[in-house]
Specification:
Order of helices and strands: EEEEHEEHEHEHHHEHHEHEHHHHHEHH
CATH topology of the largest domain: Dimethylsulfoxide Reductase, domain 2
Number of helices: 16
Helix content: 40-55%
Number of domains: 3
Distance between the termini: 26 Å
């Protein structure tokens, strides 16, 4: 079951009746809340949460609830602009703009070669967009300089899952958040970046006392203020913290030897790599008191149901892929 109560959040910015509501999904953060878009005169005029959607049950976060103001902003760009000889920007047609792009691209490639052209794209596109960009860049222009904010935001997550499991599909779901006994938010300020999911977690916690909430963050965020255990580490010490926690769990015997032997590889090498990270060394490197490290290792090692989430505090930090792989290792070895 979802622990979040139904509550239909709605904002409509129009005078008179909405002509129709269009089913959609909010794309502002990664929670994926179901919503319905208010339309009048073929324009977006509002939004409301979808009460039947299992993720948010009608709720919307503050960004999702207010994202549609920009669509009707008076200074929104509605046509391409081309810079003139005097340095000013002038409106142009799409044909004029695309012709200019094609001409400049051809001139640049002819003069400096294909890698003189780079394409930087968004993380808010669709699969078809990225496929087309890849075809244009790789096959058409022959440039290898393709990048996007997805590399900074999510490429680490993809690669660590490939390294650990051989596939980049997410191994958990929101339903697991409703069932877990321990939830570790590692570099994940859920209260501000995933408001609806945070409300879902906290409603269940208020009713049942679960999950035991561990928050790993250098800052005292709104999420950390609600934690049962806040691991306030020094910035850039994610890997030392994880190495120390894994070592504590192993030394306490909270590992599944049969699972490790039958379904994992490289356990010996992993164990050797964390051996130097004694509790004392981990505490010194991370700034986390020794008793907090021991409490975290006990909670992580003893629970039969653990969910860990990561966000920018993990995969936009130092040694991001190594840290994410270490989180996977922690889950794989547990009893």
């Amino acid at each position: 079951m979802s622990w979040i109560d139904e509550r239909v959040d709605m904002k409509v910015y129009t005078q008179g009746e909405v002509e129709r509501w269009v089913y959609s999904t909010c794309n502002i953060c990664s929670v994926g809340c179901g919503c319905q878009i208010a339309v009048k005169d073929n324009k977006i005029v509002g939004i409301r949460g979808n009460a039947n959607h299992p993720i948010n049950r009608g709720r919307l976060g503050p960004k999702g609830e207010n994202q549609w103001y920009a669509n009707n902003s008076t200074d929104r760009l509605l046509t391409p602009l081309i810079r003139n000889a005097s340095g000013g920007l002038e409106p142009a047609t799409w044909d004029e703009a695309m012709s200019l792009i094609v001409r400049k691209t051809k001139e640049t490639i002819q003069e400096k070669g294909p890698n003189s052209v780079a394409i930087y794209s968004t993380g808010q596109g669709h699969l078809e967009d990225y496929y087309t960009i890849g075809k244009i860049g790789r096959a058409g222009l022959h440039t290898h300089l393709l990048d996007a904010n997805t590399r900074l935001c999510t490429a680490t997550t993809e690669f660590c899952l490939l390294q650990s499991f051989g596939a980049d599909g997410t191994p958990a779901s929101y339903d697991d958040v409703d069932e877990t006994d321990v939830l570790m938010l590692f570099g994940h300020n859920l209260a501000e970046t995933g408001t609806v999911l945070f409300e879902r977690v906290m409603q269940r916690k208020k009713r049942t006392g679960k999950p035991y909430l561990i928050v790993v963050d250098p800052r005292l965020t709104p999420t950390a203020k609600e934690a049962d255990l806040h691991l306030q580490l020094y910035p850039g010490t994610n890997v030392p913290l994880l190495n120390g926690l894994i070592r504590l769990i192993v030394k306490a015997g909270r590992i599944d030897d049969r699972f490790i032997a039958n379904y994992t590889i490289g356990f010996g090498k992993m164990l050797a790599s964390v051996e130097e990270w004694t509790p004392e060394k981990c505490a010194e490197a991370t700034g986390i008191p020794l008793e907090r490290l021991e409490s975290a290792a006990a909670a992580l090692g003893q629970t039969s149901r653990l969910v860990t989430t990561t966000l920018q505090g993990t995969f936009q930090s130092a040694d991001a892929t190594t840290a994410c792989v270490a989180i996977n290792n922690l889950h794989l070895i547990r009893d």
